[in-house]
Amino acid sequence: MKKILQFLQIFLIVVMAFVLAEHFSHYLQTLITSQIRQSGIECQLTIKNIHTLTCKNIRYHQKPLAKSLSLTWRYAPLLQGTAYIENITIKDLNINTLLSIQLSQNKEQKSSKLLVKPFIKKAYINAFYSYKGTHRLTLQAKDISLQKAHISSLHIVSPYAKVKAFGIYSNQTLQLQGDIEDLTYQMIRAATIPFIIQADPKKIAFSLIPDKFFIYNYRFAKNKITGKYNYQSLFIQADTSTIYKKSQAVLHIDAIYDKTLHYEANATINNERYNIPINPLAYQKLYAYIKGDLEQTDAKIFNQFISIDIKRQKDSATFKTSPIQTHDLNSSLPKDMYLQLIGSANPDEQNLSILSNYVEGEFSHAKKQIQGTLEFKKRYKDFHLPALGPVTIEANLATKSFFLQAKNIILEVLQKSATLKIDDALCLAQKHDQLLSFSCNINHLQNLTKTISQIYPIPQLSVELAVNASGEYSIDTQNFTLHSKVQPQNRVSPLEYLEYKLHGNPKQIILDYYALLLKDHGFYATKPSIIELKNDGIYVQEFWIEDKVKISGFYNFSTTLGKFQIKAKDYRYSSIEGDIRTKIDIDAQIKQNKIETTGTLTLFGGVITYSPKKERIVKDEDIIVIDELQSPQENYFLKNVAINIKIDAKKPILYKIPDLYALTSPDLLLYKEFGKQLQLLGMIKIFKGVYHLPNQENIEISSSVIDFYGPVENPLLDLHLITRKDRYIIYITVAGELENPVVNFDSEPYLKSNEILSLLAFGTSSKSLISAALGGDKLSSMLSNLFIKDLVANFGIKLDTLTLLTSANRIGFEIGKRVSDKITVIYKNDEISTLIIRYQISKKVESDIIFGPQKSGAHLYYREMR
């Protein structure tokens, strides 16, 4: 508005310059008379001839008025009452001095009664005006009289713009039209602004129609500005639209300047849809109403979701939003949540209050210092934010420092460093030019996860780990490096050691190396693993395991589809469980939550030294189940994983533990459908083997087969065993299912089954073979419960229950004989021999009477019976 007034003022000066110049030229004609001295004007007058007059260094009351004035006239028109001036030239006319000339009323009246009227054929005026800089103008006109004039050109050059115009003066009305070019005034910029001005003794009307102009970075287009000035009040109307990035506003402005400024404005703001989690109807269309003057402004921005009231009074302002229902903005936010913002500002201080039923906060900004507090009232989803306690925030804009403190959490950011402390975990960061280095030391990861879980539920660690990490990040290139070590703080941790180093950028991560020791299993890689991060997903170019196994593939976030390949030409797995060489060729496809794996494992030979767990209870279908088994819960593996992997061997595999030796060859299919249990199909051939019994004859294993038809835990057996006792060769054949096998005996020389069992049980030694077997966990690990039940039954004992037990590196057993409907006699031999008489009182209540060398007594039990 101020700029428009300045240009209007310049246009007014032009008009006055023209009018006064006309009077001035008429007044110069009177300089020949004695009245020149009385007007206050002085100059060096030179009359070259009767047609030419020159006046230099013209001054008005000692103030410079013009550098020179020259005119040429004709005498002949004087006979017709006209002073005909051929041309007039005025150089360096000082408009400031010109405006100060005061002609008396008598002189004006006398001038208007002159019988000779002036007429100027051509006029050239070069002038300047001083107002916040020097404004220079050049006026060329022709056919000038008291009633009419043609302005050929008007050029104005000011510090803010250039003006080119032309027009006509007729019947005391001046009309100009032209362009304002290269406008630059404070925050306003415009290349070209066409204008039209019409001025008469009562008013000045103008119209500006710029194609576009800029205020700050806002571009205004489709502009039309009109106004009137009656020499006392200025009336302006403006219609425009502005586009800033993805926003467009259409404005209509009405303004009146009458010693003070009053204005009203209406705006409609349209925003494009943003990719943000806010209801687009909340911001795509807004309305604004503004009303005010130089002292006060009231504004309101609103739509159906939000309303903001803004008030300005002199140098202070306040704003207040209506209570915002946040669920209307984002449906994932709680339905009962509301938010309201209240703020105030003056040149010295700004304040902001946050009111909500979920969080409250107070912030203030003064002298480049920001201070505030936040207090959370309710949980938000899984975030238990009230556990943070009062949160204190401080910031210094001058030193670029920031400080945040909550319960067990301290964050401090300085100009070139930052510190984060959670419990005793400490992370540091330092900035050097464009390089950011950081380090993190966590002595008790278990305590750290416990503290974080009070705010957000994360998995709790059952073991204590120490983590050390360090790295660098380049701000300009976004490249980073990271080196980390993880070590357990106690012996119960399955993770024994982890170390890795990686580098990359937001688009690619390269794992330089890693070393992992987990439950006596070691994994490492010195070949770089390359992972690309794209907008649509993760692309694994190569991920190495022990520099032999290569994993590659991709996973798409939007489609939830993925495909990975696991390949190795000759991978050697070596640990305390064995040493195996294998070729791996496996494909895995991911679709949503489903994973389907197919491929082959081809074994090139090796040795397996894995021993089964020593502590277990093996049950068959005749065992009394005391506690009812719980049905297995459905888990992710059961529901979402399908497997089809073939396992075969090019060379035999040696199964070797201290007491057992067997040469085997697998030909298996590991198979699983979605929602079904894992199955094993195929067979394991046993070429030969031997089982060593301490102080007893060995058991030889001849050509045998274990067939798998589905359930992993219950294969079909075809085992052929040979042992020697005294002068007899005893052949044992085990066939049928693992859980219910059929055991046959034969011998050379021939013996009956009872004689073979008697020989095996008692023999000639004080310690029989069966007692040795029942006391040797290695035999049980191989034969499990394959033939114990039939072995004991062949002694003529019909058992109702039998359970094979292990404890303290030895095998024991529990056998029972039901003597009536309610009484069962049980003999238990594990660490000691115990006799138990079990009496069933009811379906769910029974008692045990125990007789043993170390303890005896009676117990009453409530049991869920099968």
UniProtKB/TrEMBL annotation:
Cell location: Membrane
Keywords: Membrane, Transmembrane, Transmembrane helix
A GO CC term assigned to this protein in UniProt: TAM protein secretion complex
Span of domain Translocation and assembly module TamB C-terminal: 555-863
Keyword Transcription carried by entry: no
Swiss-Prot/TrEMBL GO biological process terms: protein secretion
Entry annotated with the keyword Transmembrane: yes
One Pfam entry name: TamB
Domain of life: Bacteria
Annotated InterPro entries: TamB_C (IPR007452)
Topology with respect to the bilayer: Single-pass membrane protein
PANTHER family: TRANSLOCATION AND ASSEMBLY MODULE SUBUNIT TAMB
Protein name (database record): Translocation and assembly module TamB
Organism of this sequence: Nitratiruptor tergarcus DSM 16512
